Amino acid sequence: MANWERRHQDFPAPVPSSGHSGTDVFRADEVAAWLGRRTVPANVRREGELAGTTFGDRFRAGLDRGNFSAQDFVHRLLAEADRFRGQLAPAENMLLLLGLVHTWGTSPAARVSATSLRTVLRTVLDRDVAGHEQVATLIEVFSQQGPGTRAECAAVFDLLVDRYRSEYGRREGGELFTPKSVARTMARMLSVAVPRPRRVHDPFCRAGEVLTAILAELPESGIRPCVTGTTPSSDALHLATMNLTLHGAEDAVFHLGMEIEGPGPRDGSGSPWPSGIDWIVTNPPFAQRLSASEEQRTWRYGPPGSRGDFAWLQHVMDQLAPGGRAAVVMPEGAGFIGGRPGRIRGAMIEDGAVECVVALPPQLFAVTAIPVNIWILTRPVGRCEEVLFIDGSALGSMTGPALRELSEGDIAAVVDAYAAWHHGMERTESTPSGAGAGAGAVASRALKLDELRDRTYMLTPRSLTAPELPLMNPQVTEQVMARRMERLESAAARLQELSGNLERSGNPWRETWSRAAPSGTGESIPSGWRQERLGTLAEITVGPGGRRRDKADDTGRGIPVVRPAAVRGHRILHEGVTWVPEDEAKSLTRYRLKPGDVVMTRTGTLGRCALVTEAEEGWIFGTHLVRIRPSELSYADYLLGFLERPEAQSWISRRARGTAVQSVSSKDLYDLPVLLPPRAEQQKIGRVLNILDQQRQTHTELIAALDAYRAELADLLMSGRVLLPTEE
């Protein structure tokens, strides 16, 4: 912990302790709260940890006092609540759980009985959402392994809000709960410009998730700001109130309504703030249609028409205090749409209202994949010097099939780029175009007003931070071109060698054709040939079940795993190989490969086959493959060719089962009829097909090398570094 204290200025200070001479001692609850502001990145989560798990959750789980784990408790709570499915609508059931967590953390006296807890719940939620039996059952769960402190209740509440967001996020009024990583990015950017706000407001407060992120970023010392918000629905009002109370803002004030239709933000007495607000953070509804009365009101930069995005932006500008800042989530289209919104955008830029625009990646929200931007607004001073653009569109990592999350490193990269530019401007130094580029892992660029005018006031970080097209590429040298030529010549020589081998084989397929049975003889088998079932010629083994081996780690350590995507052109590709650890591979011995095996895809795209060579000896074949191990090595090349025949592929396809994803079983493959010629003929056919496969592979390599050669040669010629000889 002493290391954390040295590396982080906001880490809790040690406390005096007479029993630990020479050793710093820290309060566990303060350390847990500090770690609770740092989310575990998706790529290092442990098994069973949910999205949104913090290092504070891990810390609390490791303490001797109860070993409480927020994620384990959420799993248990949801399982118990599922027993009452059907008695409440799913969203109502989740609201009940959130109310229970809030009540457990803020009203210890209500824990004594189901009756008292239900009474408090009715007051908190302004309705009776549960029967006595439900509450009694859930109280037992809380009593057995529930959170013991308000901080632990807040951790459970956060995880349940994440669940609520992913399953029931789209509520009336178009609510889309703001992902934690987006909220943290907004909060940390604002803290760069205004480190100690006196007033914080969210004019379209959903579950209070952005405001709790704001509170988490504020220093522990000093006066806590006044927190207010306006919620669009009664459910959001209850969620925000519970959320802020659990996170230490018991005096937060929320009002119900649509703020752009009303009098604007109000303090606890219901009066407007006279001198404005220091921080405004919000994720308003995208493309909200305005009523006729809203369109008639006076707007700072012009009537927004029917598009509500620019109504919210102007509403926020009207509420800012001098020197204040706002972070507003906007759809990407708000940065380039023309017409009336375009004119408003231009007026805001000219006035100096827009300070920074950050492009975020798609798939951050649970119920929409559209990319969003964060607009940092400031109280205008009547002129614009420049606007900073930060391109974070490539940040984040997937945490599910359609959900992305920003890591702590991603957030830091964006905030660092903004801080570098902001502090440079405070020193009154001229910030050149490209300032901030290279800060962290994001591209950033500041554009002057004249440049923005030339671009018709476009606010699109992805295009505005893109590097200029270089006319010269100094990285391509003659040595690089020489190495390319060596590889091309090597591939050409190998192709010539394989072509020679094919010619020396005597073209056996012509001889076979010359003595083939004449047409009209029906389906008679050639003399000396026989029909066998595949299962009598080879051992058929389906890939390992359980955890999907097709999604093993790509660390490059352990034993390689063959996936269906690697089965191409009758061979196993080595690009993009995944791996299993050595110790885990010991339990998969029966799934090892050896030269002469044939692997075939048995699910999805059925029937693609590849021959295992010495280069893949000892590898493991994955879940969605089947291994066909011939009893005689001479069968291998022949069986590969036979399985690829249209008739064999059709036979396999007709026996596939499944609706969304089809698969074929080893039992069905056992009965696949194989037409088998004499051994000498098998070897001859297999050898010819093998040579053709090798030639095909060489052609593929040659084409790839030619493509690379052409690209580099074109670059050299068109940059003037290489000149073609003069024609005589």
Folded structure, characterized:
With 728 residues, this protein is of the alpha/beta class. Helices cover 41% and strands 14% of the residues. The chain contains 25 helices and 22 strands. The strands form six sheets. The chain has a nine-stranded mixed sheet. Strands 13-21-18-19 form a four-stranded antiparallel sheet. Strand 1 (199-202), helix 10 (209-217) and strand 2 (226-231) form a beta-alpha-beta unit. The longest helix is centred in the C-terminal third of the chain and has 40 residues, at 679-718.
List the helices and strands and how they pair.
Layout: H1 2-7, H2 28-35, H3 55-62, H4 70-81, H5 90-106, H6 114-125, H7 132-145, H8 150-168, H9 180-193, E1 199-202, H10 209-217, E2 226-231, H11 234-246, E3 253-256, E4 277-282, H12 292-296, H13 309-319, E5 320-331, H14 339-351, E6 354-359, E7 372-378, E8 386-391, E9 397-400, E10 403-405, H15 408-426, E11 443-448, H16 449-454, H17 461-464, H18 478-504, H19 508-514, E12 530-533, H20 534-537, E13 538-542, E14 559-562, E15 567-568, E16 571-572, E17 578-580, H21 582-585, E18 598-601, E19 609-611, E20 620-621, E21 625-630, H22 635-643, H23 646-654, H24 666-670, E22 673-676, H25 679-718
Parallel strand pairs: 1-2, 1-4, 2-3, 4-5, 6-8, 14-20
Antiparallel strand pairs: 5-7, 6-7, 8-11, 9-10, 12-22, 13-21, 14-17, 15-16, 18-19, 18-21
